[in-house]
Design a protein that fits this description.
The structure holds two protein chains of two kinds.
Chain A (H helix, E strand, L loop, with lengths): L1 H40 L3 H4 L11 E8 L6 E7 L4 E8 L2 H12 L5 H17 L1 H35 L6 H36 L1 E6 L4 H9 L3 H32 L5 H7 L2 H4 L2 H15 L5 H25 L3 H9 L4 H29 L3 H6 L6 H11 L4 H21 L1 H9 L4
Antiparallel strand pairs in A: 1-2, 1-4, 2-3
Helix pairs in contact in A: 1-17, 3-4, 5-6, 7-17, 8-12, 8-14, 8-16, 12-14, 13-14, 14-18, 16-17
Chain B lengths: L3 E10 L3 E11 L4 E5 L6 H9 L6 E6 L2 E2 L10 E4 L11 H11 L4 H14 L15 H14 L4 E5 L7 H18 L2 E6 L2 H7 L2 E6 L2 E6 L1 H6 L4 H6 L6 E10 L2 E5 L4 E2 L4 H6 L6 E6 L4 E4 L8 E10 L4 E7 L2 E7 L10 E6 L5 E3 L9
Parallel strand pairs in B: 3-8, 3-9, 6-7, 7-8
Antiparallel strand pairs in B: 1-2, 1-4, 4-5, 9-10, 11-12, 11-14, 12-13, 14-20, 15-19, 16-17, 16-19, 17-18
Helix pairs in contact in B: 2-3, 2-4, 3-4
The chains are: A alpha+beta, B alpha+beta.
């Protein structure tokens, strides 16, 4: 008995674990791409080189200024979290040019004053510690020399080793060479550690570091700045989406009400056929639509686009709204009629307020469905593209600028996300039926 | 308050199916009328036609001598309590009750006074600020009732208002409804399939079957003086027992016979049955009109072995096998009758009803 009980508990535990692993897996699949997209949209060009390894988003840029060997010129480096060291970005003497370059490359607005101040500081530092620096530089030079020499030795020894390899008669020479090589390698490692130590030691005396807050939304600003009419396209897209919601909800909602409340011949067949249009690929519908819309004068206009989107959305809206209206007892309307409302009044004052949550959720579907649509929009617009088309064009045009495209993508997701958050309360009610 | 008159009212669904047909009825002022019948008998259809929620195919509806047949519900001066209560979930209890008055453009103070009064009448004063989802079924029922009462309509319609309540609450509400009716004196049409409800509340019961009225009368009328076998079989628990008998006359006196017993009709029944000489008739006897005793008496008609006994506390139901049927009788609670026991059965002569087996109508 006890054994059985334990077995069952173990089995339960295993099942539970598997269940949670599965849930985590699903969450991982959903969250990871979104996280990558968002994180890269906040990265500068310089950071994007290391992508996808810097998993966290940096809010600051770390810089270091060193005097260059050329008189009056300075080297500016940028700290890379992934590589764990400073990467040289630019060498020059004109601070305003350097500042512009840094802004472009790292999204950090480094003021010219700050650069000048750092340069002065580093100059002072260098002059104050010139003795120490010269000693250290000398040591560094000698270490470098040693390293150079040992490197040459290693190459030479390896070449010789290749010649004598595998020959019985030269076995003793070979052994000698191998021993030498091992000695060289040791010297090389020593030299390298020495150089590293010296560099670290010299750093506080010949470089000045500072930290600048990163402009997080630089990519977004750039995207809207460089992309051809991104902002008007954004408004156009919102316009198209809202028009689609309006059209599909008006037509689909009234049809859904009819399907829910009235009985007529061929009702089920008709209801099913509203979904047929969704079975055709949108792009296939878009081609003939170009001609039709052009003749109607709607080509390359938000209204024309929303009309085409509505064709696909109405079917779904009918199904969703029909199920919502079915969830609202007809008695509620009848009671309103008995107590003084007309049939239409009963619909407006009783059914509509009750159906509102579901209708809102259905509106969300239409909004998202038409907001992010690209293929048909490419076909049906020319000089007035919608936002997804602009993002697509950027993607095709700006190869390699991943962070810029990501910024466009996130910008495209934002209105849909906002809309969804606004009506999230009602989402559950749509599929759970309206509880009355 | 007012009278309600239905003249040859009929409702057809599609081309053939009649939901209700040939309904002729006059409801007097202040009367409490109950439509009673099995499901699908057209009682709700008829009520919905009165309410204006169902289109009338033929006939007329008069309220206070005014033809309202084609008027929309809101212009008929009626109010209704729905089976599912139909209390608007997005309005508070107070707003639910005030809704009809607001549409009548009553003043705010007037609405408040009226709403308070009906809330008191239906005992929901303390729930006025709540929303329907915070109420139990019984409380929602009261809200629906209050809403219907507040408009002081000419005709008050109730569509199985108690059927969604549990048994105990139903009996309680029944009494309360009757008390409210006594107080308001509203002309009321009440639809139900529960005969106990109908019997206890109605001034008159309208028994319906297959879309038409079978009998219309007081509780006693439909119980003791049934118009046909349907009413006799539908009303009463257990229902009327039907026994098929053959009439024969010898020496000028009538005798009803079957394979188990003979019975000699008495008094007025003799006259009625004369026409049916040598034919079959159906004898209808209420379970309580068959007197069960353990000893043989002078008027014992036949004896039989007891099949089953169902004790009910106040009485016991004794069932016997009678040819291929089971006959149920109501006996006093004591002495206890046991299954397998031999019992002697006699009839209460004046309670026996005779029916024509072909038309199923009462022989009068």
């Amino acid at each position: 008995m006890m054994d059985d009980l334990r077995k069952r508990n173990v089995k339960k535990g295993i099942n539970k674990t598997i269940f949670y692993i599965l849930i985590l897996f699903v969450a991982f699949i959903i969250v990871t791409p979104i996280y990558f997209l968002v994180s890269i949209s906040f990265m500068s060009d310089q950071e994007a080189y290391d992508w996808p390894f810097p998993l966290g988003i940096d809010f600051f840029g770390n810089f270091s200024v060193q005097p260059a060997e050329e008189e009056g010129e300075y080297i500016v480096s940028f700290y890379s979290n992934t590589q764990g060291k400073y990467t040289t970005l630019i060498q020059g003497k004109k601070f305003d040019e350097i500042s512009d370059f840094l802004k472009d490359k790292t999204n950090c607005d480094v003021p010219v004053e700050k650069l000048r101040e750092a340069a002065e500081n580093v100059d002072r530092l260098v002059s104050q510690n010139s003795d120490k620096i010269s000693v250290l530089t000398a040591e560094l030079a000698s270490s470098n020399k040693t390293l150079l020499k040992v490197n040459q030795d290693i190459v030479k020894a390896k070449r010789q080793l290749k010649l004598v390899e595998g020959k019985e008669s030269m076995k003793s020479i070979e052994e000698g060479l191998i021993a030498n090589l091992a000695q060289y390698e040791k010297t090389k490692t020593e030299a390298e550690t020495e150089i590293e130590r010296l560099e670290k030691e010299i750093e506080p005396y010949n470089s000045v570091r500072f930290r600048v807050t990163k402009d997080m939304f630089a990519n977004y600003v750039t995207f809207f700045k460089v992309t051809r009419d991104a902002l008007p396209a954004l408004f156009r897209s919102i316009q198209v989406a809202l028009l689609t919601v309006l059209i599909s909800l008006t037509i689909g909602g009234t049809a859904g009400y009819a399907f829910a409340r009235y009985r007529f011949k061929g009702k089920n067949m008709l209801k099913l056929s509203t979904l047929f249009v969704r079975m055709f690929p949108g792009i296939a519908i878009a081609m003939p639509m170009v001609i039709i819309l052009a003749e109607m004068g709607f080509y390359d206009q938000p209204l024309g686009l929303s009309l085409v989107y509505s064709v696909g959305q109405i079917g779904l809206t009918i199904w969703i709204t029909a199920s919502i209206f079915m969830g609202i007892p007809v008695e509620l309307e009848e009671a309103a009629q008995v107590f003084g409302r007309s049939k239409f009044g009963a619909f407006i004052y009783v059914t509509l307020p009750l159906a509102l949550p579901g209708l809102a959720a259905s509106a969300m579907y239409a909004f998202i469905g038409s907001w992010a649509e690209t293929a048909q929009a490419i076909v049906l617009t020319q000089f007035n593209p919608t936002f997804p088309v602009v993002v697509y064009q950027t993607m095709v045009g700006a190869k390699g600028m991943v962070n810029l495209i990501a910024a466009g993508g996130v910008a495209m997701a934002l209105p849909a996300v906002t809309f969804t958050i606004l009506i999230r309360r009602y989402m559950l009610q749509m599929w759970g039926g309206v509880k009355v | 308050m007012a009278t309600l008159e239905l003249i040859n009212l009929g409702k057809r669904y599609g081309n053939k199916v009649w939901g209700a047909r040939n309904i002729d009825l006059v409801v007097d002022d202040k009367e409490f009328i109950v439509f009673l019948g099995p499901s699908g008998c057209g009682k709700t259809t008829t009520m919905r036609m009165v309410a204006g929620l169902e289109e009338v195919t033929e006939g007329k509806i008069l309220i206070d001598q005014t033809d309202v047949t084609i008027l929309p519900p809101r212009k008929r001066d009626i109010s209704m309590v729905f089976q599912s209560y139909a209390v608007w979930p997005h309005l508070s209890v107070y707003d639910n009750i005030a809704f009809p008055l607001k549409l009548q453009k009553a003043s705010k103070s007037e609405i408040e006074v009226k709403a308070k009064r009906v809330a008191e009448m239906t005992k929901i004063e303390e729930y006025l600020g709540r929303f329907p989802r915070q109420l139990s079924g019984g409380q929602r029922q009261r809200v629906a009732l209050a809403r219907a009462l507040v408009v002081e309509p000419k005709v008050f319609l109730m569509d199985e208002p108690l059927s969604n309540l549990d048994a105990k609450l139903r009996v309680k509400m029944r009494t309360e409804l009757k008390a409210i009716h006594a107080q308001t004196q509203a002309t009321t049409v009440f639809v139900t399939h529960d005969q106990a409800e109908a019997m206890s509340m109605a001034d008159r019961i309208v028994v319906m079957k297959d879309g038409s009225i079978v009998q219309c009368g007081t509780s006693d009328d439909v119980y003791f003086d049934c118009e046909d076998m349907f009413v006799a079989g539908f009303i009463g628990t257990p229902p009327t027992n039907f026994i098929t008998m053959t009439l024969s006359s010898s020496d000028g006196s009538l005798m009803l016979k079957n394979n188990i017993f003979n019975y000699k009709p008495k008094d007025k029944n003799v006259e009625i049955l004369n026409r049916y000489d040598k034919r079959e008739v159906v004898m209808g006897i209420r379970p309580e009109s068959m007197i069960v005793s353990k000893e043989k008496k002078n008027d014992t008609v036949f004896s039989s072995k007891v099949l089953v006994v169902e004790p009910q506390g106040s009485h016991q139901i004794v069932a016997i096998q009678f040819n291929d049927k089971i006959i149920k009788m109501i006996a006093d609670p004591f002495p206890k009758v046991l299954p397998g026991e031999e019992v002697y059965i006699s009839f209460e002569n004046e309670r026996i009803m005779y029916f024509d087996p072909e038309t199923e109508k009462r022989i009068r």
